[in-house]
Design brief:
Layout: E1 6-9, H1 13-23, E2 28-29, E3 34-35, E4 50-51, H2 55-63, E5 67-73, E6 76-81, H3 82-89, E7 94-97, H4 102-109, E8 115-119, H5 124-131, H6 137-154, E9 160-162, H7 167-183
Helix pairs in contact: 5-6
Length: 195
């Protein structure tokens, strides 16, 4: 049994991702990332991270497209491998990914066809209303502009775009879309070719 990876774009995606994992741990989880940083006390390889002792090996794996995303922080490499996502998928769980739009095509090339849902903000006010106490108009405008940019660049790769009045409604709609996608025997695979 195989469950497709899940990517949510839009403001508050972290809240929505966390809520799915918390509410349905039998259906949703994160994958275990790889890193070249040394293991800390009480960390276990394969639980918090897959610890890679050989930086050159991880660099080679990144160059060979074995990671959908990777970066460097504090002099150490971190990344999400295709195999880590497959491990989750073949455990019959949706791997919840917090990645950039560029990762979608990498997943498709690897034969992992993600469910990609864009929670489109209606306007800056919608973001402000859902920010709660952290409401800041300048920050809300930046988020709104970033969302529009993401939609413009990667909208053709989205499985669904939703606009809801609040995060609870968005969560319910996301659940409906995932349930629908789980019932169909095919996946939408966008093409760059002209018809």
């Amino acid at each position: 049994d195989y469950s497709r990876p899940l990517i949510i774009f839009g403001p508050f995606k972290e809240i929505l991702n966390d809520q799915l994992i918390t509410d349905h741990p039998d259906k949703f989880t994160n994958c275990i990332p790889h890193t070249t940083r040394p293991r800390r006390d009480k960390e276990i390889d394969g639980r918090e991270y897959h610890f890679v002792a050989n930086r050159k090996q991880m660099e080679d794996d990144i160059q060979n497209y074995l990671f959908i995303e990777a970066g460097e922080y504090g002099g150490n490499l971190y990344g999400t491998s295709i195999n880590a996502i497959r491990d989750v998928a073949y455990a019959s769980k949706h791997c919840v990914l917090d990645v950039s739009g560029r990762a979608i095509k990498r997943l498709i090339r690897a034969g992992l066809y993600p469910i990609v849902i864009y929670v489109k903000p209606r306007d800056v006010k919608w973001i402000l209303d859902n920010m709660g106490q952290e409401a800041d108009e300048k920050r809300a405008k930046q988020i709104y502009d970033k969302c529009n940019e993401t939609e413009e660049q990667f909208g053709n790769l989205f499985t669904a775009t939703i606009e809801e009045d609040n995060l609870n409604d968005a969560y319910d709609r996301i659940s409906e879309i995932i349930n629908h996608e789980n019932r169909v025997d095919s996946a939408w695979i966008p093409s760059e070719e002209k018809i």
